[in-house]
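Page 37, continued from 36.
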């Protein structure tokens, strides 16, 4: 059965979608079958790998209007498939609120293909609402991207409290797969201090690889390509390749 990772951070702009795309792409390049699940109505994961947001998307799948095989789309990277999202998903968030077992819609939708993929990576919206709860319920492990700034420290505490509540009530098998730093600027004292504080507190939960600020990483999504295709020799690409290897090594 494939391993399911969910990328979560209630703060936007921390590199969550970029990380999900590029970690997934490098795992796929390494020969593993990977499914990216865009579970954010902005659909940035979909466009970031050049996949259409046209129907059927994750919304149609959840609404029972398409099967999962009809919903899965192929990216330009070998072994890398995608379930895309569109603005329609914002409507699903409203519709799920009053549904029975509303936290498990995504888990149930993905169940038929868990045997087909080695890794399923879910990108959630920057919030701790019903869509993110669905992602946490469907996952085996949480991956937390963290920007090196002061308020990120407060945010990570709130996020981990939410994860603990999910572990107690919705998904008892959920674990923290790891925390990793993004947009790191070694020239600033604050970035260095944040890394030191988080590592001292969370210890082995923190990945060794740190993703630096890199222009090429910012450019790649506008071309609909993961960094391993857009510019595999840049420092951002090499960093994500190492991080993907760490994710695999942790199981």
């Amino acid at each position: 059965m494939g391993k399911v990772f969910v990328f979560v951070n209630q703060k936007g702009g921390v590199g969550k979608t970029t990380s999900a795309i590029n970690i997934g792409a490098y795992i796929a390049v390494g020969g593993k079958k990977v499914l990216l699940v865009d579970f954010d109505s902005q659909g940035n994961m979909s466009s970031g790998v050049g996949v259409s947001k046209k129907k059927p998307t994750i919304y149609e799948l959840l609404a029972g209007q398409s099967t999962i095989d009809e919903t899965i789309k192929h990216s330009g990277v070998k072994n890398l498939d995608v379930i895309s999202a569109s603005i329609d998903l914002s409507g699903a968030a409203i519709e799920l609120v009053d549904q029975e077992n509303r936290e498990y819609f995504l888990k149930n939708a993905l169940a038929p293909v868990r045997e087909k993929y080695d890794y399923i990576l879910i990108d959630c919206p920057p919030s701790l609402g019903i869509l993110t709860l669905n992602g946490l319920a469907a996952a085996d492990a949480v991956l937390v991207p963290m920007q090196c700034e002061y308020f990120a420290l407060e945010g990570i505490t709130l996020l981990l409290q939410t994860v603990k509540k999910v572990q107690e009530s919705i998904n008892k098998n959920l674990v923290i797969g790891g925390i990793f730093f993004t947009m790191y600027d070694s020239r600033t004292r604050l970035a260095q201090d944040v890394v030191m504080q988080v590592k001292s507190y969370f210890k082995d939960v923190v990945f060794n690889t740190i993703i630096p600020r890199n222009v090429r990483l910012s450019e790649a999504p506008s071309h609909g390509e993961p960094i391993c295709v857009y510019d595999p020799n840049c420092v951002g690409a090499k960093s994500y390749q190492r991080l993907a290897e760490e994710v695999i090594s942790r199981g």
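The chain has one domain: 3-250. Flag for discussion at group meeting. The CA atoms of residues 49 and 186 lie 29 Å apart.
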